[in-house]
Design a protein that fits this description.
heterotrimer; A alpha+beta (about 170); B alpha+beta (about 800); C alpha+beta (about 290); B: about 800 residues; alpha+beta; Aldehyde Oxidoreductase, domain 4; Aldehyde Oxidoreductase, domain 3; 3 domains; 7-stranded mixed sheet; 6-stranded mixed sheet; 21 helices; about 30% helix; about 25% strand; globular; C: about 290 residues; Uridine Diphospho-n-acetylenolpyruvylglucosamine Reductase, domain 2; Uridine Diphospho-n-acetylenolpyruvylglucosamine Reductase, domain 3; Enolase-like, domain 1; 5-stranded antiparallel sheet; 4-stranded antiparallel sheet; 12 strands
Chain lengths: ~170, ~800, ~290
């Protein structure tokens, strides 16, 4: 074992300090050390996306970063989306569109969608579907998730931005 | 939510009431097993077999036990000395089924950690407990197993070869169960058929793969001699039973809670060794113990499913009328069969689907091999028979030059024949009767949703003339749902007047807290927010069964109704006393009881609860005992029959063999829908799992019994971009078997897609007379047909 | 699935990083984006005892116009490349390749230098740099050297980098005016590694091909330059016959292994199909830009 180090991060605007061995995954640090368990761990090899959080503006897999790498970083997680108990518009849309069943993938879905809708240039339905394929859901068949994220994109960018062909459907460009 | 939904419609049942589960989950305030942190908690990890079949010479845990940060380590010897194996039959088939289906069953018990030999890759041979999961995994590396590789039995056929080594020597054979069933003249019925076709159908191995792996936390309280277990399970009462049995404790002193559960789909539908071991460790060590399965462990060790081989012969006349069908099939059960012959029993019962077929005979071997144990997963034996049956129907059509849709219509049971006696026995021991439904109508609607049969066929012709390959795939099934033996519910009126409901159902995302509140709110005529629902906690319902087998909507609603009926009686008696009127003049209204036609004459449930209290000052009439609560058990007479027709239109890329799904339709009937939005979500989620099984997901083993797909890099779950446009249409033919007309629907969606996709591809490749009779449907195989046909 | 213990070193300059790597080689590994290394560590299939974390070396993250090529710092994130207008116009093949890498959250962390150094045979960047004859710059305490893309890859997940060297810069030749490019691949799901993929850059003069560069991924122990296919198309133009022949030559040039996702024969066949499609798409883009 290697000695623990003190790590300070800003999580949802709150400055938090904890201790971590170099090998501690950021996801574990958030959940077990800082007790922010809203972020979930589903595969620990970067495929399922349940642990997706936003670090310094970009969505990343928190199971593929070590806590020591995040020292000083600004992190947003599912717990920070609501304000004063009022759900974020995307959270409301997830509920309205039945975009969650068991809710385990939900933290990764929400954080992926936030980054996708706010930071990418292409808001076509096809791009949203491809973008949301970064996180896996086993319950919903993605129907409600895609509907909710498209509706959110319309709220943020206007109806005109969210148009075009919905490609996807498993097709590669090959 | 406000009361307006109910007032407009006269009830909550049938309304898409928003889920009460959503808020916590969306705010990141869910509470899954992995989220539980208790003071002094330590972490377990398991050393797992790298070999499919091996004799254990020795396992030395000394170095691991001595490691800094490790508080406990045990080998199979240590565990076997302390704990009995899990009873191999977690579900016992009723005598009625055993009497009417020929069976010869030898189910092996499952050691919690074996000390003689290892029977699949991933089976545990030792465990450690440490201050963190990180340290526990370090300690696992210090365990030195001396394992002697034995000849592996990598699949069912190799296990049946004469002289093959045995997976469980004491059984004397590699067959856990022989089953046989017959309808009409059985195989002899084939002789009268002017046409006969024989085919082998192979349904590959895949699994539930919930996004949350399994996990258990246990805490033992010395003072009260009580164990509390939090398990990511679909069956808390089974866990309580098995833990109590293994640890020699009264069931009342073991409480099992399934907190938020991140999907189950059957994979968490029985008790696993870890459920018992973690509970034992907590008592043994005297500290709370946590084990969270990682994804690699989950893929190796959590139950797999499907993995069947069917040899089918079908006899039919010139018109495509099916006269007889025989099916001889193997289930690769892996090393243990935690749910016994249940999957095979389902397969036997569901083979004939929505068709009237006079003669049927089937036999089955449930075969023990060196694969991971096989247990029910969404569909549980039905996708496999649907594949065999619905491919066969297409083959009949092709053989006669008829449209596959037409052959289906000619063989379907017409609605006027409902209820329809099948002539077989369900695994609840009761003669099978399809209770209600209109099968042809479902198929007509599915075709219409794709543009209508004629239009589709014309489009195919036009496309073919441009060198494009379009295919129509059809697939129908029936599904026995709401199976017994029972479900329990406790209904109380709280002193505050609120309605408290607890059931043995254990949801994993279905929205039970919402739909059972809908039921109870209607039964009590209260705003839905006055109903508080507790699920998945043995501390709240004495006996329960759990959420498996598309059963909870039917069985838990039945139990809630029985308990409610009982409490209603007391409520009316006490209200009559308070209002000084006859019970017959009373009705439930406005969160209480009122005199019909007299708006002012009303007492609230709160007042009634106060009147019902035991002790001084109660206002119960003579003969009414104190308290307003009842616990009841609903024992369904037999299953309700849901069904569906599926249709899809695909286009094949002739160069790569890729399949583009233009649209996928399921017309589904689960009787009265309690919450249409949630029902829709269940069916669509199931469909996408079925598509995953058809096209992406595969637990592939090599010839030496090694699993080749041990990560989510290789076990491919469908992602958003793999999902085609889905259309789900609900027919609502009420069940005749229960008060609400409901049927189950959790599994249905996952049943048909494999065969529907295979049929669609074969239809597209009709110019080549292509047949795809195994899953998954592989692009490479499709591309080969084009290569071979220039 | 927790990584074994290691020591984490966090240099803030390249010089410091090279010193660290030199001190701790051969047990030390540089950590770039970590999107391949960390999963391997979580499975304990990789267990370096020292990680030299390059993520705080801001000098290694840049995209600059260097006349005939773009100079790209090795620690430039794939996401930065995807969003770079300069990349999109100067080296559109690199842009196309980037869109095929994993998913957005992977590209947020993944770096071009990390991907190339990891040298996964199914990855898109190795084929891209090979097709474009990019130059790779490596540094160690012993100094700097440049390596041609053709000499950089050395079998499955192996490069010719020495244990004390770090890939620091990638020099991507700019696409000639009027050229077109495309990376076309087939994978089982969006974002998965390719079963077969082909990177193509083509310059046309009317219907004749004046320059063409092709490289395949996913169909051999490393990226494969499709020289034979290039020659066929240069000599015979873009007729259906020539494309078919180029596809056939591409298939013949590959050396795929079979696995659970695709047999070797199928991958080989796909290499031919992807070659035709990549050339077709690149040529269409060349015509558009002409």
């Amino acid at each position: 074992m290697t000695a623990k180090r003190s790590i300070t991060v800003i999580v949802n605007g709150e400055c938090l300090t904890g201790e971590a061995e170099p090998r501690m995954l950021l996801a574990d640090f958030l959940r077990d050390e800082l007790r922010r368990t809203g972020t979930h761990v589903g595969c620990e090899h970067g495929v399922c996306g349940a642990c997706t959080i936003i670090i310094d503006g970009d969505a990343v897999r928190s199971c593929l970063m070590f806590a020591v790498q995040a020292d000083g970083a600004e992190i947003s997680t599912i717990e920070g989306l609501a304000t004063n108990g009022e759900m974020h518009p995307l959270q409301k849309l997830f509920s309205e569109h039945h975009a969650l069943q068991c809710g385990f993938c939900t933290p990764g879905m929400l954080m992926t969608a936030i980054d996708l809708v706010h930071n990418s240039n292409d808001h076509s339905p096809g791009a949203i579907r491809i973008g949301m394929s970064a996180a896996l859901c086993r319950c919903t068949g993605y129907v409600g998730i895609i509907d909710a994220v498209m509706e959110y994109a319309r709220q943020v960018h206007g109806d005109a931005a969210v148009t075009g062909d919905e490609t996807g459907g498993g097709r590669n460009d090959g | 939510m406000d009361d307006s939904v109910r007032r407009e419609s006269g009830g909550y049942i049938g309304q898409s009431v928003p889920r009460r589960e959503d808020k916590n989950l969306l705010l990141g305030q869910g509470n899954f097993v992995a989220d539980i942190q208790l003071p002094g908690m330590v972490h377990a990890a398991f050393a797992r077999s790298p070999l499919p079949h091996a004799k254990i010479v020795s396992v030395d845990v000394t170095a691991a036990r001595a490691m800094n940060g490790v508080c406990f380590a045990a080998s199979g010897d240590d565990v076997m000395a302390a704990l009995p194996p899990i009873n191999g039959m977690q579900v016992v088939a009723p005598q009625g089924w055993r009497d009417r289906v020929d069976t010869d069953i030898l189910i092996p018990d499952q050691p919690l950690i074996p000390n003689d030999k290892l029977r699949y890759v991933g089976e545990a041979f030792a465990l450690v407990v440490a201050d963190s999961r990180y340290i526990a995994e370090d300690a696992l590396e210090l365990i030195e197993p001396d394992l002697k590789a034995l000849q592996p039995l990598p699949d069912a056929e190799s296990a049946l070869v004469d002289g093959a080594p045995l997976v469980h020597e004491h059984l004397g054979r590699n067959v856990a169960a022989f089953l046989h069933a017959k309808k009409g003249a059985g195989a002899e019925g084939l002789e009268a058929a002017s046409h006969r076709l024989k085919r082998r159908f192979v349904h590959h191995r895949y699994a539930a793969m919930p996004m949350e792996c399994r996990g258990v936390v246990a805490d033992y309280d010395t003072r009260t001699d009580t164990l509390t277990i939090w398990s990511s399970t679909q069956v808390v009462h089974w866990v309580r039973r098995e833990v109590a049995t293994a640890l020699g404790m009264p069931e009342e002193r073991v409480r099992c809670i399934a907190p938020d559960v991140g999907g189950g789909f059957g994979g968490k539908g029985h008790v696993y060794p870890e459920d018992i071991l973690v509970a034992w460790l907590a008592r043994e060590i005297g500290r709370p113990v946590k084990w969270v399965e990682d994804r690699h462990e989950h893929i190796l060790n959590a139950a797999h499913s499907r993995d069947n081989i069917y040899d089918v012969e079908i006899g039919f006349d010139d018109d495509g009328k099916i006269l007889a069908l025989t099916s001889s099939f193997l289930v690769d059960s892996g090393a243990y069969t935690p749910v016994g012959a249940g999957i095979a029993g389902n397969s036997i019962a569901h083979m004939l689907g929505p068709y009237h077929i006079e003669n049927y005979e089937t036999d089955c071997k449930v075969v023990l091999t060196n694969r991971t144990p096989n247990a029910p997963y969404r569909g549980a034996g039905r996708p496999e028979v649907a594949f065999a049956m619905e491919r066969s129907v297409d083959l009949v059509a092709n053989h006669l030059g008829l449209d596959p849709a037409e052959v289906r219509f000619r063989n379907m049971i017409p609605p006027e024949d409902m209820p329809y006696e099948v002539g077989l026995t369900y695994r609840d021991g009761v003669a099978m009767i399809y209770d209600s439904g209109d099968y042809p109508s479902a198929l007509r609607s599915a075709l219409a949703e794709l543009g209508g049969l004629e239009t589709i066929r014309q489009r195919q012709k036009d496309a073919l003339s441009e060198g494009r390959y379009l295919g129509l795939g059809l697939g129908c099934y029936v599904e026995g749902t709401g199976v017994g033996p029972f479900e329990g519910a406790t209904v109380k009126i709280d002193p505050t007047g609120k309605i408290m409901v607890a059931t043995g159902a254990c949801p994993q995302g279905q929205g039970h807290e919402t739909i059972f509140a809908q039921f109870a709110a209607d039964m009590w005529q209260v705003p839905i927010d006055d109903v508080f629902v507790t699920v998945a906690d043995t501390g709240h319902v004495t006996q329960g069964y759990g959420t498996i087998a598309s059963r909870s909507t039917v069985t838990a609603s039945g139990a809630i109704k029985l308990a409610t009926d009982e409490v209603h009686e007391k409520v009316f008696a006490i209200a009559a006393n308070l209002l000084e009127t006859a019970e017959t003049d009373l009705e439930l209204r406005d969160a209480g009881v009122g005199v019909k036609g007299v708006p002012d004459m009303h007492v609230s449930y709160r007042d009634i609860a106060t009147a019902a209290k035991p002790g001084w000052g109660h206002q119960r009439p003579d003969g009414v005992v104190a308290g307003l609560e009842a616990t009841s058990y609903y024992e369904p007479p037999t299953v309700t029959w849901s069904y569906a027709a599926n249709a899809t239109l695909v286009e094949i890329d002739p160069e790569t063999g890729q399949i583009a799904i233009e649209k996928y339709v399921e017309v589904h009937d689960a009787g009265v829908l309690v919450n249409p939005k949630l029902a829709d979500g269940q069916v669509k989620g199931g469909l996408v799992q079925g598509l995953g099984g058809a096209l992406l997901e595969e637990l592939a083993y090599d010839d030496h019994g090694q699993l080749l797909t041990g990560s989510l890099m290789d076990y491919l779950l469908p992602s958003a971009s793999d999902v085609p446009p889905l259309a789900v249409i609900h027919q609502e033919t009420p069940s005749l078997l229960n008060a609400f007309g409901v049927k189950g629907l959790g599994e249905g969606g996952a049943i048909a897609p494999p065969v529907v996709i295979a049929n669609a591809v074969c239809d597209a490749l009709r110019p080549f007379k292509a047949e795809l009779n195994s899953t998954p449907v592989r692009w490479a195989e499709i591309a080969m047909f084009f290569d071979q046909n220039g | 699935m927790k990584p074994a213990s290691f020591d984490h070193l966090l240099p803030t300059s390249l010089h410091e990083a090279l010193e660290m790597l030199n001190t701790h080689a051969p047990d030390a590994r540089p950590l770039a984006g970590g999107q391949s290394l960390v999963p391997m560590m979580n499975f304990r299939l990789a267990r370096p005892t020292v990680l030299v974390d390059l993520n705080r070396i801001s000098d290694l993250a840049y995209i600059s116009d260097a006349g005939d090529h773009l100079a790209i710092g090795a620690m430039t994130r794939e996401r930065t490349i995807e969003n770079s207008g300069l990349v999109r116009t100067a080296t559109p093949l690199l842009y196309d390749a980037t869109l095929h890498i994993g998913h957005l959250p992977i590209r947020s962390r993944g770096t071009i230098g990390g991907s190339l150094s990891n040298a996964d045979p199914a990855a898109e960047y190795p084929a891209t740099v090979l097709a474009l004859d990019a130059t790779l710059v490596a540094q160690s305490v012993r100094g700097e050297r440049t390596i041609s893309a053709a000499e950089f890859f050395d079998g499955v997940m192996t490069t010719t980098l020495e244990p004390d060297e770090i890939l620091t810069e990638i020099r991507m030749p700019k696409a000639p005016p009027g050229s077109g490019s495309a990376l076309v691949e087939i994978s089982r799901r969006h974002g998965d590694f390719a079963l077969a993929g082909v990177a193509a850059q083509i310059t046309l003069d009317g219907n004749s091909v004046t320059d063409i560069r092709l490289a395949a991924c996913g169909v051999g122990p490393g990226p494969i330059r499709l020289a034979e296919s290039e020659m066929i198309l240069r000599e015979r133009g873009l007729s259906d016959d020539a494309l078919a022949a180029a596809g056939g030559a591409a298939a013949a040039a590959t050396d795929p292994d079979g696995d659970v996702h695709a047999t070797a024969a199928y991958r080989r066949k796909l290499a031919g199909v992807m070659t035709k499609r990549a050339v077709g798409k690149a040529a269409a883009r060349a015509r558009q830009s002409a």
